[in-house]
Every structure is written in structure tokens, then in C-alpha cells.
Write a sequence for this structure.
């Protein structure tokens, strides 16, 4: 018979790894299931300057997450790499069905995070990986000395635009309004960066090119005027990065858990509507999605899972 874990944690971002740390420290048999690399969104974030204690020179998202993973494992948290296909959440023993096996647990902590929202322009899928990207850390180097456009006006768009200036000749932020949403401190750095330009009140309508992206049509949201942007002939292509917010990875739970706009609803103790099932981090409905709030959610979820299991015994 398969082992029954005390806690199974779905996802190894900051929320899942913190839940793993607390589960392990509480001497509960704890398993984290992750399909890709650890860290979720911070695995592809170059700079994090607002996680408390984050003052180490040269610290990046991946270096922070590496320490989080090691810390969870140090306290006995087990790890498996698998893609979750289905979940059975009712009853005292929950079942998680992955591509490689099935896993049983008394409590489940869902920490599967969120992914980049598509830009929403015509032909977007066709040029994904051929000029369009959603990860500056992953793809900036492909645009060495080229022109790059960044869609969005939040923290992610502006921070990633600044990172892209280390590679690109010029970075233009395309924002649908005439004012950024990003934190003031981040905005100030971007306005002071001579390699960053802004295209206000603008959205991308369509993208095009023969093999790689070299043409797009943008629309002024106030006047409706359409403008075609083409790569200069010598370059032959330009980059287009989308950072316009997130969509939760919650499809597996539709019809099973209470949600709002795809985000899982929890109480302040991370409890969902099913006993023994908790949600933590960006996948749940909340007002602030940051590493520090994800980590806090993970800690609370694991402590509440611990109370839930203790009450079952
Ligand atoms: P966000 O804060 O939700 O901002 C999304 C941006 O995209 C907004 O400027 C929004 O415009 C724009 N947008 C949304 N839908 C659009 C559409 N269909 N077409 C064009 N533009 C669209 O998302 P984010 O910047 O990805 O950040 C997500 C979360 O991570 C936030 O909680 C953020 O604080 C956090 N984060 C924090 C840091 C940091 O603190 N260092 C870094 C990265 C991310 P409007 O402004 O007009 O709504």
C-alpha cells in the first residue's frame, strides 16, 4: 500500500517551500510535489529587493530559492518531481494523481502559484519563443544590442524592463494608461534610466514576421490611432516581453474548491471549503502577492494542517 503522508504540498515556490519547512520542522511526514524547477515566479526573477533581510550582494531569485529548498530538505521534507493530473480531495485520505504515480496525504496544501497572462494580441501564440517572451531572465540574452518592447505598467514590467537594458540597445515600455502602477521607488529608477522609453496609452493589437517577430501594430487607447512598428533592417527582429499580471494555476480545482476569478478562496488560516485542504501563495485570493506574503501563507497553512491532523488522531 502507498505511504500516507501527513502533508502533501503541491508546488515548490516560496509558499510551498515554507510550508515544507514548517511541516518538516513539526516532524510531520511531508512531501512536496513540483513539476519543474523550484521557486515558481522568483526562479525567473533577477532581482528581489523587498524580501526582509535581502541585502546580500548579488542575491537573485534563484539564489534565494536555493536556500529555501535546502532549508526545507534539511528538516526532512521529501521531494518528488511530477506533474499533477488530478486530485481527489474528499475524505480523510486525499489522493494526488501525477504522471509518474499516485500520492496519498491526510492534508493537502495547494501552492501552485500563477503564470504570466498572455498579452492578448493577434498571432501571439505563433511568435511565442520567436520574439515574444514572458521571462526576461530566461530570454534577455537573445536580444543583445536589439530593440525590445515591454508590455505592462506594474512592478514586474518596470523591474524586468530595467533588467533588459543590460542586454538590449533600447527598451520601450508599452502601457495602456498614462501612469505606471509600479511602486514609486521602482518607477523612479526606470525614469532615470536613459535606455528606457515609454509609449503611453498604448496596447499591442497584432504581431507579425516571416520567421521571427519583426513587425507589430499598436493602438493608442485614447485616439484609436494604429501605428505599425517594424524592426530596423539590420536587426531583422525585435523582442516583445509581456508582464501584464498573472493567472492562477487552479484549473485542477474547478468545481471542487470555492474560487473567485480562478483564485482559490480561503479564510485567514488558509483553509479552503474542504476540510484538510489548504491553499497558500499566489493561487489564493489575496490583496498582496509577494514572496514575503507567499512565505507567510505557507507557514500558516502548514501550522493549520498540523492542527487538522492532530485533531484526526
Ligand atoms: P500587476 O501589478 O497586476 O500589473 C499588471 C500591469 O499590466 C498593470 O500595469 C496593468 O495595467 C497591465 N495590464 C493588465 N492587463 C492588461 C492588458 N490586458 N493589456 C495591457 N496591459 C494590461 O502585475 P505584475 O506587475 O505582474 O505583478 C504581479 C504581482 O507580483 C503584484 O502583486 C506585484 O506587486 C508583484 N511583484 C512585485 C515585485 C516587487 O515588489 N519587486 C516585482 C514583480 C512583481 P493597469 O495599471 O492599467 O491596470
Amino acid at each position: 500500500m502507498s505511504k500516507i503522508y501527513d502533508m502533501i504540498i503541491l508546488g515548490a515556490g516560496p509558499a510551498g517551500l515554507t510550508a515544507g519547512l514548517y511541516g518538516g520542522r513539526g516532524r510531520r511526514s511531508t512531501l512536496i510535489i513540483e513539476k519543474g524547477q523550484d521557486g515558481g515566479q522568483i526562479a525567473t526573477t533577477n532581482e528581489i529587493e523587498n524580501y526582509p533581510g535581502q541585502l546580500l550582494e548579488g542575491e537573485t531569485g534563484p539564489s534565494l530559492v536555493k536556500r529555501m529548498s535546502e532549508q526545507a530538505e534539511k528538516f526532512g521534507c521529501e521531494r518528488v518531481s511530477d506533474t499533477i493530473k488530478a486530485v481527489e480531495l474528499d475524505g480523510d485520505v486525499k489522493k494526488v494523481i501525477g504522471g509518474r504515480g499516485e500520492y496519498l496525504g491526510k492534508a493537502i496544501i495547494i501552492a501552485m502559484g500563477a503564470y504570466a497572462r498572455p498579452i492578448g494580441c493577434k498571432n501571439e501564440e505563433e511568435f511565442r519563443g520567436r520574439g515574444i517572451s514572458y521571462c526576461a531572465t530566461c530570454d534577455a540574452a537573445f536580444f543583445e544590442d536589439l530593440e525590445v518592447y515591454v508590455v505592462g505598467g506594474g512592478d514586474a514590467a518596470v523591474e524586468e524592463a530595467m533588467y533588459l537594458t543590460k542586454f538590449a540597445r533600447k527598451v520601450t515600455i508599452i502601457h495602456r494608461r498614462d501612469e505606471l502602477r509600479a511602486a514609486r521607488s521602482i518607477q523612479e529608477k526606470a525614469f532615470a534610466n536613459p535606455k528606457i522609453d515609454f509609449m503611453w496609452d498604448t496596447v499591442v493589437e497584432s504581431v507579425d514576421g516571416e520567421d521571427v517577430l519583426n513587425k507589430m501594430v499598436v493602438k493608442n487607447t485614447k485616439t484609436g490611432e494604429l501605428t505599425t512598428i517594424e524592426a530596423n533592417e539590420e536587426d531583422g527582429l525585435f523582442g516583445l516581453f509581456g508582464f501584464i499580471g498573472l493567472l492562477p494555476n487552479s484549473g485542477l480545482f474547478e468545481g471542487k474548491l470555492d474560487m473567485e476569478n480562478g483564485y482559490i478562496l480561503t479564510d485567514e488560516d488558509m483553509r479552503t471549503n474542504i476540510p484538510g485542504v489548504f491553499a497558500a501563495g499566489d493561487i489564493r485570493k489575496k490583496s498582496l502577492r509577494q514572496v514575503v506574503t507567499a512565505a507567510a501563507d505557507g507557514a500558516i497553512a502548514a501550522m493549520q494542517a498540523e492542527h487538522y491532523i492532530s485533531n484526526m488522531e
Observations:
- Residues 32 and 117 are 26 Å apart (CA to CA).
- The helical segments are 14-25, 61-74, 136-139, 155-164, 184-191, 291-312.
- The radius of gyration is 21 Å.
- The pocket of NAP is lined by residues 50, 120, 151-157, 159, 176-177, 181, 203, 243-246, 289-290 (CB under 6 Å).
